[in-house]
């Protein structure tokens, strides 16, 4: 039985070449480098792009942004790397490599952290609904214009949220006894016309009658009077924080705060972290499409895809974004809520990034030298897509992995990496060494 695989547009590297057996026992012949048919594996290439954008030639290796080192070496010198595979073949990833664990700047780590967060949110919502509770989705945003610096509007947005939640209106409408707690998620998109668009989604865990009888229909009966009061309080908070003018009042009242019923909250949780737009190949490839066609703007990871196409504005914008969001928490539960609903303590992004998910198990292992081979040939996304698709048989998985590595070694190294990787510290051992495409 023969399996034909096609080449992948891997950034500028179109690797159309002949390959190896993927399953020795079944003697399947493979022609062509396995192409990640699914966009999810492109995150590895985009992580590399993020690293090259964030790399600062004026700094020493240990001072570089941690995303520069993500997936570039083994986490503990001497250890091998476990290759995990989702049991249904939908995904594969490395465990035991250096990871940056940055939810903001790393498409790879972000996907993992979001998957963990999504499961926690779903568990929390289920528990609360089973207790007879209700969860609605509240979105907070403000008027924004092109040219505004993220470093200025982001702190002002934080201030506005604090004003709002300390307001008499908020405390009365969502008082103790009505509101159990909430989970806040900070997000940002960027539009060509209107620039940076930070916004926050709050999942509010409350009693079913917080806004009238929400058990009937899908939040359609939310009491609009109370919501209007919240909208006014949000407008006042934005005024106090300098994020809107009086002349923008009607606009803010119409669009600044949005409350949606339980079905929307459930849908939001279900796709949490999964609607990152860079993953949609149509949007990633059609650069021109970003102008005026998507008024919600692009996810920052899409900037990486545009940077790959040579867009220097996107490079500068990604740097600005990375700096402004450094140290910010993406998802936060109000005090005690997570413990009460899920029985689990709050976890840091670092802990979430290292969790093993129930749907995955170890397909095989590779050593640090093999990792360096995959990275220097830019074959990491292809390799993981291959593991996901073909390494489902535990008896042959390691042999199939080894066969791929044998093939990878025959491929030439790919020049052009702007990330200078030359280091021996903190276990970042054995990585490919490249300086702007030169080898040393
Ligand atoms: Zn990372």
UniProtKB/TrEMBL annotation:
It holds the Pfam family Rep_1. InterPro entries: Rep. GO terms for biological process: DNA replication. One of its GO terms (molecular function) is DNA binding. Keywords: DNA replication. Belongs to the Gram-positive plasmids replication protein type 1 family. This is Protein rep. It comes from Duganella vulcania.
């Amino acid at each position: 039985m023969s399996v034909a695989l096609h080449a992948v547009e891997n950034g500028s590297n179109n690797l159309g070449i002949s390959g190896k057996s993927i399953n020795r026992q079944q003697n399947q012949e493979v022609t062509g480098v396995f192409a990640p048919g699914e966009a999810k594996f492109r995150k590895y290439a985009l992580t590399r792009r993020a690293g090259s954008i964030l790399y600062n030639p004026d700094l020493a290796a240990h001072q570089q942004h941690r995303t520069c080192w993500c997936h570039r070496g083994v986490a503990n010198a001497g250890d091998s790397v476990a290759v995990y595979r989702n049991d249904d073949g939908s995904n594969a990833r490395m465990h035991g490599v250096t990871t940056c664990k940055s939810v903001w700047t790393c498409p790879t780590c972000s996907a993992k952290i979001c998957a963990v967060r999504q499961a926690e949110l779903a568990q929390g919502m289920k528990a609360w609904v089973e207790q007879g509770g209700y969860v609605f989705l509240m979105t907070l945003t403000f008027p924004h214009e092109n040219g505004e610096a993220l470093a200025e509007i982001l702190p002002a947005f934080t201030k506005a949220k604090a004003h709002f939640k300390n307001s008499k209106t908020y405390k009365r409408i969502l008082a103790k006894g009505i509101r159990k707690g909430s989970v806040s998620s900070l997000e940002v998109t960027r539009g060509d016309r209107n620039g940076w668009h930070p916004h926050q989604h709050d999942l509010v865990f409350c009693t079913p009658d917080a806004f009238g009888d929400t058990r009937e229909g899908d939040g359609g009966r939310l009491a609009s009077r109370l919501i209007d009061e919240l909208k006014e309080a949000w407008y006042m908070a934005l005024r106090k924080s300098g994020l809107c003018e009086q002349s923008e009042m009607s606009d803010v009242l119409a669009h600044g705060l949005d409350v949606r019923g339980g079905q929307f909250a459930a849908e939001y949780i279900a796709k949490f972290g999964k609607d990152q737009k860079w993953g949609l190949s149509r949007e990633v490839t059609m650069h021109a499409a970003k102008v005026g066609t998507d008024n919600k703007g692009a996810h920052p990871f899409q900037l990486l895809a545009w940077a790959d196409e040579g867009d220097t504005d996107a490079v500068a914008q990604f740097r600005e974004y990375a700096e402004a969001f450094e140290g910010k928490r993406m998802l936060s539960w109000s005090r005690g809520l997570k413990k009460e609903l899920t029985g689990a303590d709050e976890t840091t992004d670092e802990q979430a990034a290292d969790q093993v998910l129930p749907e995955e198990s170890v397909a095989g292992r590779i050593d640090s030298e093999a990792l360096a081979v995959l990275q220097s040939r830019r074959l990491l996304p292809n390799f993981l897509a291959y593991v996901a698709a073909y390494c489902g048989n535990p008896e042959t998985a390691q042999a199939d992995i080894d066969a791929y590595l044998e093939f990878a070694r025959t491929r030439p190294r790919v020049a052009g990496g702007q990330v200078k990787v030359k280091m021996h510290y903190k276990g970042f051992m054995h990585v490919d060494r490249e300086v702007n495409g030169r080898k040393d």
